[in-house]
Amino acid sequence: MNVESPSQPSITNVSKNNIYSSKLLWIGIPAFLLVGLASILIYNYHALFSVDKLVAGLNQDFFIYLLIGVFAQLVDGTLGMGYGATSTSFLLSVGVPPAISSTGVHVAEMFTTGASALSHYKFKNINKRLVTYLLVPGVIGSVVGAYLLSDVIDGKVIKPFIAVYMIVLAVMIIIKGLRNNNVKKKTKNLGVLAVFGGFMDAVGGGGWGPIVTSTLIGRGRDPRYTIGSVNAAEFAISFASGITFLLFEGINGWQVIAGLIIGGVVAAPFGAFFVNKIKRRPMTIVVGLLIIYLSSRTLMKAYF
């Protein structure tokens, strides 16, 4: 009598299950968080968004913020850094206060980094292990930084220091653009790097990319997977700091947030597509010089 062995799942079925689980993790969870956040914001702040107020708010300032969002996301998606530094430099230069600027940038980044992470996932630019190492420490640093800026630090006092910090980030970006390919080295203290990057990103309105991406690429990691992975982790970092800003600041300057979100979401797929298409060195240098110019203007306005 022939005894049939219990049927085993085929390799194809196992592969399909893995793909389904991966999509649930990388697409389902971010989508759920963003839909939940949008629902809460609409419920809590719907009084701010009457038809008359929305129509009145769709003015020249709104479209300036939208263009800032488009440009900043193209920079970030292509270079793996610079969204916060670029958008914050522009916002400060047009007179947006630091707390509102950082709130707007990080609430917008909840959506733009989510779109960017999905785009990088689609183009297979993500190293999941690297994302795991960066996630929790980066979230801790960002929450602490967001709390300090929202509830402890005086925005008027810190504004010139943020401008100086932006200049430092710009120099880092330019150095990255001029640097030749690096020999790969073992990256130590990823947790410390992520905590520092998340903290400075929240307090300064940017820095996660320039600090984390430039350090990892400087140690010889593959730019494609480093950019995709750091951008994917940035979704959690931005979400944590954005929620913290909303708890302590509420929604101030909705035009800034809406303009950055719409512009960034529209530009995110293009940034992920161009990551391997564009000549990175000249663009990196141009972006760095632009941030230095804008931050220098902010310093001049603060002291003269």
From TrEMBL:
<keyword id="KW-0472">Membrane</keyword>
<dbReference type="InterPro" id="IPR051598">
    <property type="entry name" value="TSUP/Inactive_protease-like"/>
</dbReference>
<dbReference type="InterPro" id="IPR002781">
    <property type="entry name" value="TM_pro_TauE-like"/>
</dbReference>
<keyword id="KW-1003">Cell membrane</keyword>
<feature type="transmembrane region" description="Helical">
    <location>
        <begin position="282"/>
        <end position="300"/>
    </location>
</feature>
<keyword id="KW-0812">Transmembrane</keyword>
<feature type="transmembrane region" description="Helical">
    <location>
        <begin position="130"/>
        <end position="149"/>
    </location>
</feature>
<protein>
    <recommendedName>
        <fullName>Probable membrane transporter protein</fullName>
    </recommendedName>
</protein>
<dbReference type="GO" id="GO:0005886">
    <property type="term" value="C:plasma membrane"/>
</dbReference>
<feature type="transmembrane region" description="Helical">
    <location>
        <begin position="254"/>
        <end position="275"/>
    </location>
</feature>
<feature type="transmembrane region" description="Helical">
    <location>
        <begin position="161"/>
        <end position="178"/>
    </location>
</feature>
<keyword id="KW-1133">Transmembrane helix</keyword>
<feature type="transmembrane region" description="Helical">
    <location>
        <begin position="24"/>
        <end position="43"/>
    </location>
</feature>
<comment type="similarity">
    <text>Belongs to the 4-toluene sulfonate uptake permease (TSUP) (TC 2.A.102) family.</text>
</comment>
<feature type="transmembrane region" description="Helical">
    <location>
        <begin position="63"/>
        <end position="83"/>
    </location>
</feature>
<dbReference type="Pfam" id="PF01925">
    <property type="entry name" value="TauE"/>
</dbReference>
